[in-house]
Amino acid sequence: MTEHTLRWWIFHAETNGLKPALLKIGGRVYIDRAEFNKWLEGQRMAPKPLKPAA
Description:
GO molecular function: DNA binding
Structural class: alpha+beta
Strand order of the largest sheet: 1-2
Distance between the termini: 36 Å
Helix content: 40-55%
Number of strands: 2
Keywords: DNA-binding
Protein name: DNA-binding protein
Organism: Minwuia thermotolerans
């Protein structure tokens, strides 16, 4: 994950569901690790099924 990606997620937290994991105090943003990891797991795409070897 890049800094740019994390900033994008934080900027769009209202619409992507990340808001419960964020705490904003002054100009700083704190991330609740447990909530962030829960949110991140929810964003995981289902793995593609493996094709059988021919």
